[in-house]
TrEMBL record:
GO biological process, one term: L-leucine catabolic process
Domain CoA carboxyltransferase C-terminal per the UniProt entry, residue ranges: 345-585
Alphabetized PANTHER family for the sequence: ACETYL, PROPIONYL, PYRUVATE, AND GLUTACONYL CARBOXYLASE-RELATED (PTHR22855), METHYLCROTONOYL-COA CARBOXYLASE BETA CHAIN, MITOCHONDRIAL (PTHR22855:SF13)
Residue intervals of the CoA carboxyltransferase N-terminal domain: 69-335
GO molecular function: methylcrotonoyl-CoA carboxylase activity
Residue ranges, annotated region (Disordered): 42-69, 324-355
Entry GO CC: methylcrotonoyl-CoA carboxylase complex
Compositional bias (Low complexity): 49-58
Protein known as: Propionyl-CoA carboxylase
Taxonomic placement: Archaea, Methanobacteriati, Methanobacteriota, Stenosarchaea group, Halobacteria
Entries under SUPFAM superfamilies matching the protein: ClpP/crotonase
Length: 592
């Protein structure tokens, strides 16, 4: 190492400086005059007997004894090993009876031995519980490793993401001051990195006896949901529930874009059964209050139900394959594959009679790549299918009426489900395919009470506001406002395609004839003559609404043979892949 020093230094001072620097840096030092080339002093590092430096060890053929970790480092490693053991042993032993993994084993399942990139905050709340901590109580058997919450970064299915995971062996996964701080930091860092967030939830809620440290603070647990809102639509948020998520903890799964519940072990509710009984007098167990079946069928809060921990991982692995890392990126594409069943069968699947039921999935599997579908919330509002899939390797979101359920009429729950799915697809730039076969929105006193107008407007609003490429296919009937919700001609689709079985009308022939000609038909006394006249009127009406008339009037863009529908959609999605649409300049709409 060559250095320059002030020339006012004496020779002895220069030599002392050189010696000190050589000892400090562990290498030869030469000192020169500040303005000149004269060597003032030089020195080499002194090596004590029995010791070696890295350079010396490297330079002597490896014969010198290498340096080993110190006792200080060994103490630290022992503390880390203790933290990794989790909460009290008695709680770890109960996990297998509860049908779930210890959180560290769960992370191994998700990320493997090499997938966990790093962890933040292992030593959170260390002083409060560890024998080495400054404030620990030697009389207490409480263990609070990592304060019961693990956060960090990992690689999952080739994707970098942020994660958090509750440790149920630490006070039932409850949340307190230091764990909350880790959670918030993880969310805030996700906003910076633009990478997905995975929440592995198993929490009984906040630690009530410690609420002064985190509940109402500006940077407390309430900030979770502010951060969820900031992340929403920016990066995908996926939540998996492994146990009871009660009160504040239950909001993370419903704020996430996608929620997976594990059967028999998971639940979420605004209050525990004990609290429900105190407040309302109702006696109910946790599964009946907020188990997977409740949220899959009735509330719609669960997108997917996993049979066990391994199945939960499989579902999320498939789900994330449709999603980009953030809103600025394109969804990942794969190599395209042929449909599982030949498109030539589509026309045979769709009955000619408009009131006959059939399974729209039989059409879908003849359009999309084999094995590429992932239906979300299948038990909630089942008269509409919301599903991810691929066409020629390109991710799409499918919104399809299901004539096998309620004749495909749109009920409030189905409209809500569709609106939220459309909104999510649009946030992450996933093109939309609408498959329309519906008599329209359901009518009646009960659906009015259930908010058919409110939920229907949300579906229409989501369709209207979506800026991703949209393709709408009139498979069979498209009656009433159903054609609006299903991205009909007025809703800025890139294309509206009709199959030969398609019809577009204010209402179906039976209802229309009854509404317009009821008095005229009633005046015909002969039943046979009346039936003949009614049939004639129905056929005339159908001629006005069939897909050929719609194509002739250029209401729709094209009629395609059903056998070529897959090929047609493939070409149109590819062509419009880069289409850009602008919404009116405003802060945001007022319809949610």
């Amino acid at each position: 190492m060559e250095l320059q020093i002030n020339t006012t230094a004496t020779e002895q001072e220069a030599q002392a400086i050189a010696k000190a620097l050589a000892s400090h840096f562990g290498e030869d030092v030469e000192l020169y005059a500040e303005r000149g080339e004269d060597l003032l002093a030089s020195a080499s590092p002194e090596v004590s007997a029995g010791a070696t430096t890295p350079d010396a060890a490297a330079g002597d053929g490896g014969n010198a004894e290498p340096l080993e970790p110190t006792a200080r480092e060994e103490t630290l490693q022992a503390e880390i090993d203790d933290i990794l053991e989790g909460g009290p042993e008695k709680y770890r032993e109960r996990l297998s009876d509860q049908g779930k993994l210890f959180v560290r084993d769960r992370l191994d399942l998700w990320f493997g031995e090499d997938g966990l990139s790093f962890e933040d905050g292992k030593f959170a709340n260390f002083d409060a519980w560890h024998p080495s901590g400054q404030n620990s109580d030697p009389e207490s058997d409480d263990r609070l490793p990592a304060d019961g919450l693990i956060t960090g970064a990992a690689e999952f299915e080739g994707r970098d993401l942020h994660f958090m995971a509750n440790d149920f062996t630490v006070k039932a996964g409850s949340m307190a001051d230091k764990g909350v701080e880790k959670f918030l930091r993880m969310q805030q860092r996700a906003l910076k990195t633009g990478r997905p967030v995975l929440y592995l939830m198993d929490s009984s809620g906040g630690r009530i006896d410690q609420q002064s440290g985190f509940f109402a603070n500006r940077e407390g647990i309430g900030k979770y949901y502010y951060n969820h809102s900031m992340l929403s639509g920016r990066v995908p948020q996926i939540c998996v529930l492994y146990g009871p998520c009660i009160a504040g903890a239950a909001y993370t799964p419903v704020f996430a874009d996608f929620t997976v519940m594990v059967r028999d072990v998971s639940a979420m509710a605004i209050a525990s059964p004990r609290m429900v009984e105190m407040v309302t007098g109702e006696e109910i167990d946790l599964q009946d209050l907020g188990g997977p079946d409740v949220h899959a069928r009735h509330s719609g809060s669960a997108d997917l139900i996993a049979e066990d921990e391994e199945h939960a991982r499989e579902l999320v692995a498939k789900l994330i394959g449709y999603l980009p890392d953030n809103a600025d990126e394109e969804p990942p594409q794969t190599e395209g594959t042929a449909p599982a069943r030949p498109p030539e069968g589509i026309d045979s699947v769709v009955p000619q009679e408009p009131n006959r039921g059939y399974d729209m999935n039989d059409v879908i599997e003849r359009i999309v790549d084999a094995g590429s579908t992932l239906e979300l919330r299948p038990e909630y509002g089942p008269e509409i299918i919301t599903s991810f899939a691929r066409i020629d390797g390109r991710p799409i979101g499918i919104v399809a009426n299901q004539p096998n359920h309620r004749a495909g009429a749109i009920f409030p729950d189905a409209a809500e489900k569709a609106a939220e799915f459309i909104w999510t697809c649009d946030a992450y730039d996933i093109p939309l395919l609408y498959l329309c076969d519906t008599p329209g929105f359901m009518a009646g006193s009960q659906v009015e009470k259930d908010g058919i107008l409110e939920q229907g407007k949300k579906m229409i609003y989501a369709t209207s506001s979506a800026t991703v490429p949209k393709q709408s296919v009139v498979v069979r009937k498209a009656y009433g406002a159903g054609i609006y919700a299903m991205s009909g001609p007025a809703y800025d689709p890139e294309s509206v395609i009709g199959l030969p079985s398609g019809e577009i009308a204010i209402m179906g022939p039976e209802a229309a004839i009854n509404a317009v000609y009821a008095n005229k038909l009633a005046a015909i006394d002969d039943p046979d003559e009346r039936a003949e006249k009614e049939q004639q009127l129905r056929e005339e009406y159908r001629e006005d609404i069939n897909v050929h008339r719609m194509a002739s009037e250029v209401v729709i863009d094209e009629i395609v043979p059903p056998s070529s529908l897959r090929e047609e959609l493939e070409a149109r999605f590819a062509f419009y892949e880069t289409v850009e649409k602008d919404l009116p300049d405003k802060k945001h709409g007022t319809i949610l």
